[in-house]
């Protein structure tokens, strides 16, 4: 399993949608509580042999999330603790300024999500309780979506329905929005998803009605947004808060999760028996980032507060 020990606490790791050997990492000093951050591009030196840093940029505050542009293999978006959303050219020399810095959020920017259908469109979620829609070439937000009563920790575009996205909040709800109208009319759906804060949500890549949520209550829930009165299933197994869920790009019912219990878990919601398929315990601090490659089937990555970044095949691992 390729491993890299970084000096900062890892918050988010994402595979490139263009290059199967590249990943992006967002990390922060002092567990993101105070200090600077860093956005790094990592390269796998051949399957299974190692990870190395190929480019790196410092941020003035913690870097909490990262997303690859869907239009260019050279551009990354980063959500920062000072509330800014920054775009970086990863081919630029070290110390180069960002391509753009959007600063309209009033509190920490917690998440970024780039649309695969509208490739210049970018979402950011913030502790200020809003989600903002940006055009990568425009100086200010296209729209502001205000409807949550507390911090918004996650926002994710639907991979199958252009203009639709979801947001997950500490107000215990997940909301579904139409980007064209939601800023004026509010969310299309407000889901009372958990009894505790919802930290993450993701859409199935094959079923445009299927949504997964993860919460401080230690569970993952699957929802059919057409029938939101009750979850389809509840996945139990994590011992602490579920910080990240990520559906597989290659199988409708497979998803990966990362938790404050320091584990990364694979779930098969379609399995006839126990949906908990695998558990990995390579992290020694909170596991807060995980992703599955869209280019290499069964390739996983994780990042944690222990500074460890790992990639591995789902049928193997540490």
Number of helical elements: 1
Query: Helix- and strand-based class?
Result: mainly beta
Strand content: over 45%
Spatial strand arrangement across the major sheet: 1-28-27-26
| CATH fold-level topology of the domain at 64-285 | Methylamine Dehydrogenase, Chain H
Q: What top-tier CATH class of the domain at 64-285 fits best? A: Mainly Beta
> What is the distance, rounded to the nearest whole angstrom, between the alpha carbons of the first and last residues?
6 Å
Range of helix content: under 10%
Please identify, by name, the CATH architecture of the domain at 64-285.
Answer: 7 Propeller
Could you name the ranges where pLDDT drops below 50 across 5 or more consecutive residues? Answer: none
Helix and strand sequence: EEEEEEEEEEEEEEEEHEEEEEEEEEEEE
| Rough outline | globular
Radius of gyration: 18 Å
CATH superfamily membership of the domain at 64-285 = YVTN repeat-like/Quinoprotein amine dehydrogenase
Largest sheet: 4 strands, antiparallel
Describe the structure.
The chain is mostly beta strands and about 325 residues long. It has a domain at about 65-285: Methylamine Dehydrogenase, Chain H (7 Propeller), CATH 2.130.10. The chain is about 0% helix and about 50% strand. The chain contains one helix and 28 strands. It has a four-stranded antiparallel beta sheet, with no helix packed on it. It has a four-stranded antiparallel beta sheet with strand order 2-3-4-5, with no helix packed on it. It has a four-stranded antiparallel beta sheet with strand order 6-7-8-9, with no helix packed on it. Strand 2 and strand 3 form a beta hairpin. It is globular, with a radius of gyration of 18 Å. It starts with a strand and ends in a 5-residue tail after the last strand. The relative contact order is 0.13. The model has no long low-confidence stretch (mean pLDDT about 95).
